[in-house]
Amino acid sequence: MSGVVDLAAVKAAGEAKVKAEQARAEAARQGGGGAVPPSSLVIDVDEAGFERDVLQRSAEVPVVIDFWAEWCEPCKQLSPLLERLTQEYGGRFVLAKIDVDANQMLMQQFGVQGIPAVFAVVAGQALPLFQGAAPEAQIRATLDQLIQVAEERFGLTGVAVDAEGAEGAGAEADAAPAAVPVGPYDALLEAAVQALDAGDFGGAVQAYKNVLSDDPGNTEAKLGLAQAELLARVQDMDPAKVRQDAAENQSDVRAQIAAADLELVGGHVEDAFGRLVDTVRRTAGEDRDAARVRLLELFEVVGPDDPRVTAARSALARVLF
């Protein structure tokens, strides 16, 4: 999704988790403030406010985007359902409504081919959810999965909602997130994120490896290491030459791998996965294994719960077996 998913989004998981933890800790120090009124959970968004209302907010809470238009009859069925579910989920996500007639550029950036179309943005990363007026049970299942991924991968647990009255005050107290305890590897993980921000990819790689040497199953460190290694590989690439080499040398596995790395960093996730699946299909022996291993590494960068990873895994299985 050119223009939405970019280089910064590749490392967004670690950054978003740190920012979310800092925001929760700050709210706890200030007495648990930061609750929002229910009316703020559903917002109208235009191109001018997209960065503030969607991209920046997605570092705190998943943002579900409803692309709609006044003339769209299925939209008139889906939009009220999404608004009702947004209130029912009580701050686990917010709903951004985008009128495609008034915001053609956003429609093009997300690659929307028809409406209604529903996407999510989590920590700056755009994810397609579904298109059309889907059944409520399917929508609920999709939202549940989105919330789970946002919490497990990005540490986003939603926002506290300020309900009216004494009963609402009690519910707010129950929903307010507690202060986040400091884990044994938080300092190293924070150092790795700072190294990524500074462009010190080698330092970030080492910091993540230091965590994994003591805790091999640390999910955040594994994700961060995959991202840092990818950024380190592409930082000195000449994009034009990489693309030319890949186009002119279809049988050169190294050229195809380099092009796939560049595509992923540029946000062209499906293109990167498709290129490597095709390379696995066309090769054998060590070349096939090199393409397969790199594809698995890129799966780690994007995350196992991403639907594009699921689709690419199935495609890989078909060419292997």
TrEMBL record:
A Pfam family annotated for this UniProt entry: TPR_19
PROSITE patterns for this protein: THIOREDOXIN_1, THIOREDOXIN_2
GO term, biological process aspect, one: response to stress
Residue ranges of every copy of the Thioredoxin domain listed in the record: 30-148
Superkingdom per UniProt: Bacteria
Protein known as: Co-chaperone YbbN
The species this protein was found in: Streptomyces lunaelactis
Taxonomic lineage: Bacteria, Bacillati, Actinomycetota, Actinomycetes, Kitasatosporales
